């Protein structure tokens, strides 16, 4: 099915407004978050799907800037094995766009029963997850109709940035308030680079999507979007993991999509990876990374300067645009990928 417009594209465009509303709502809650922080030492993220990719961002952010150990939960420990784990001193952060995914609600309840304090990050005001948490960070993305998450994902990232500030991260809140304008700039720039990358992706069966550190979450989410809406065999990998073997799959018919903040400690490694990919005769496409990454890639989409801790909120937007346009170019409806619904229930 080929369409000239999509709900997904409209919702991508709604992200600056959704981010502004979310930050206006959540930044005043940092004192409540700080109170939970004083009772806990480490953070356990509970999530699936796109929310799990957001949790990866949250984990890097908290460990790099708040000095807290952060890990990803295995929900089956609660829902399948029913194991009891000592979670005294743990802050369990459950992330679910709807707040109605039973596995996530059940796992957060399990964490509380094991001694954890709880935070919900959800777009579902009044949802079971929001109602059960000690503190609910309810994002203001509005109703999201397209199955692939766009505005609910970026507002989750914003909520996790607020969480980091509340947990004592030595970061500037004023930088966070500038993010919606940066996303506006991404959406306002010509899409020639997006279109050029899309044309190069038509006909390929697979791709490697890579980043590291804060941008690793972007690589995971971009790969998920390409799989969901374009049915592309896309692997999301840290470039450190990629270099340990899977780089062998990158060739003239399997491009690499590389993402990085315009500055920061992982940029040089991403540029070196792009150079290695192109030297091997494989296409390399960049998102972000400034002039350095653009110069090492065949094609690149620029993003406005954001500090590395906030860059993933801007970096994912070009990947969303590429996904939406590629899906339509391939004759698919990006709003309703086959076999998927808006709320996924697992046990």
From TrEMBL:
GO biological process: carbohydrate derivative metabolic process
Every SIS domain range: 33-173, 197-337
EC number assigned by the record: 2.6.1.16
Pfam families cross-referenced by the UniProt entry: SIS
Alphabetized CDD domains for the sequence: SIS_GlmS_GlmD_1 (cd05008), SIS_GlmS_GlmD_2 (cd05009)
InterPro entries in the record: GlmS/AgaS_SIS, GlmS/FrlB_SIS, SIS_dom, SIS_dom_sf
Molecular functions per Gene Ontology: carbohydrate derivative binding; glutamine-fructose-6-phosphate transaminase (isomerizing) activity
Entries under Gene3D superfamilies matching the protein: Glucose-6-phosphate isomerase like protein, domain 1
Keywords, alphabetical: Aminotransferase, Repeat, Transferase
Enzyme superclass (EC): transferase
Origin superkingdom: Bacteria
Database matches in SUPFAM superfamilies: SIS domain
PANTHER family: AMINOTRANSFERASE-RELATED, GLUCOSAMINE--FRUCTOSE-6-PHOSPHATE AMINOTRANSFERASE, ISOMERIZING
Protein name listed in UniProt: Glucosamine--fructose-6-phosphate aminotransferase (Isomerizing)
């Amino acid at each position: 099915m080929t369409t000239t417009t999509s709900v997904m594209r409209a919702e991508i465009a709604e992200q600056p407004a959704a981010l502004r509303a979310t930050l206006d709502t959540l930044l005043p809650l940092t004192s409540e978050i700080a109170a939970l922080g004083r009772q806990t030492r480490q953070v356990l993220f509970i999530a699936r799907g796109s929310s799990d990719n957001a949790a990866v961002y949250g984990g890097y952010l908290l460990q790099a800037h708040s000095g807290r150990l952060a890990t990803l939960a295995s929900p089956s420990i609660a829902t399948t094995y029913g194991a009891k784990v000592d979670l005294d001193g743990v802050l369990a952060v459950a992330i679910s766009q709807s707040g109605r995914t039973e596995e996530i609600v059940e796992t957060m309840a399990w964490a509380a029963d094991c001694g954890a304090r709880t935070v919900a990050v959800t777009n579902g005001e009044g949802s079971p997850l929001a109602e059960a948490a000690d503190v609910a960070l309810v994002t203001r993305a509005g109703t999201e109709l397209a199955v692939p998450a766009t505005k609910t994902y970026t507002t989750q990232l914003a909520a996790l940035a607020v969480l980091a500030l509340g947990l004592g991260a030595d970061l500037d809140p004023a930088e966070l308030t500038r993010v919606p304008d940066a996303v506006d700039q991404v959406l306002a720039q010509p899409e020639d680079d997006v279109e050029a990358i899309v044309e190069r992706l038509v006909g390929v069966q697979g791709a490697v999507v890579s980043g590291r550190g804060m941008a690793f979450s972007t690589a995971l989410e971009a790969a998920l979007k390409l799989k969901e809406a374009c049915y592309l065999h896309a692997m999301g990998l840290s470039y450190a993991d990629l270099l340990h073997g899977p780089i062998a799959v990158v060739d003239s018919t399997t491009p690499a999509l590389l993402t990085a903040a315009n500055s920061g400690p992982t940029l040089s490694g991403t540029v070196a990876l792009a150079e290695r990919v192109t030297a091997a005769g494989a296409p390399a496409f960049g998102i972000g990374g400034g002039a350095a990454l653009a110069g090492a890639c065949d094609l690149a989409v620029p993003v406005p300067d954001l500090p590395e801790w906030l860059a993933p909120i801007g970096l994912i937007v070009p990947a969303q645009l590429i996904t939406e346009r590629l899906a339509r170019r391939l004759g698919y409806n990006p709003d309703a990928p086959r076999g998927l619904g808006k709320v996924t229930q697992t046990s």
